TRAP transporter small permease protein
Amino acid sequence: MALHPPIAARVGDRGARIDRLLWRAVDAMLFIVVAGLLFSVSWQAASRLLGFAAPWTEELARFLFVWTAFLGMATGFRTREHPRILMLSAILPPGLRAFPHWLSAACTVLLFAIVGWHAVDLLMQRIAFGEMSPVLGVGMWVATAPVVLGSALAIAGSIAGLRRDLADERAQRTVTPEPTPDTIPLGREHRS
């Protein structure tokens, strides 16, 4: 049973708004984490130049680096910034050109489902045992949480990227028809 077109449009609009809000929140969090990382590393360098040690800066920088890596990776999947092999979809017949996009998304989802599953297990262990960081005295789960969050966001980003790839493929199929031998120019000469 298909949704009524106006209902489908409203559901699609609401989903698009939620998607935009989610990724704006991720971008804001990434901005804050990168700013914190910059501050921590700068403070560490300045303290060494001035002759006193600030041991908390190294540990904080490590935690923030993990957050930066996993949030940035997830954002890269959403915006399709990671390396992709597009040559295969260019040489496939029009009906099969979406296959590499589906394969790439499926592999990404599988990989990050496995990473996320194991990260959740590690996160639960760290919370259960009450592991604390040696210098900052915060729970070590703070260093594992971005792996869980980043894995979930990488899956969501990969699916969002797949939707855009498929939309691009559909648009390209409708805009540029397949060239035929009669429509392929031969340098400066024209067939008569």
Summary: The chain has a mean pLDDT of 84. The chain has five helices and no strands.
